[in-house]
Amino acid sequence: MNSALRFDVSPYASFMQETKIDLGNGIQLHVEMGGKEDDPAILLIMGLGAQLLFWPDFFCKLLIDRGFRVIRFDNRDIGLSTKISPTHKPRIRLQQMGRFALGLKNQGAPYNLYDMANDVALLIDQLGLKQPHLIGASMGGMIAQIVAAQYPDKVGKLAILFSSNNQSMLPPPFPKQLSCLLAKPKSRDANTIINHSLKVFQAIGSPGYINQIDTLQTSRKLYQRSYYPTGILQQFLAILCTGSLLHLNKKISTATLVVHGSRDRLLPPSHGKAIAKAISGAKFELIEGMGHDLPPHFIPKLSSLFADHFQS
Question: In what residue span(s) does the AB hydrolase-1 domain sit (predicted)?
């Protein structure tokens, strides 16, 4: 670990410390970490528009208790990390969605997932990590696939959670989930934005496992910590402008576990199965009843699956 770094106690979890990491490419990432310095590291990569707090404290603590040093961070353009000012108003076009469905790249984003994967590689270097294991969720799983393919010497084992390789002709998100994700809050006041977030959580989450009060409190905490809708839009464009990762899956040689929820309506399970099929020797695990989220009910099972995979 880089001994020159200065840490403060996280305001969200007493067992985590936080700091800012300058990557040297114009980007600073806000990072939290917990666990013993000598324990093997797990780097958690979150998805579209999702701050580091989307990795629940409970999940991080269970992995720490299993003997890991756990690191979560805000991707560029989200949370407390560097925001990318757009040169023109970012827009998602129907043509881009069509090309993306065919596994094709698009133009018109200030950065793509390869740039975000480079952020992760630089973060590993700046923290002085020795081949950390990666867990990537949703868009973070796409980034993790690129890191494992392009920087194999920097990565231990790989785990992918409710993600996709965006190969052509995979089933699209269900209409309700996609429209909810793309919809804008009706106004800019805090309560409207927080209630909008609650609707998104309810639409994409695990049916029957969403605690409305907890979810509302989480939405409020995330809004108070950082609200930057332009970043969410630019991250969406980054996905659309990256295209299929199928050619990279063939290059991944590290032991890989792919986990997906049976009730995921944003990225249906066939997306996860496509990754597992494309990566040599990858294992696939379907979690019955889980959607596109990490509710407390599934966290003991998930943390155990990942810890067993990394320790095997």
Answer: 40-293
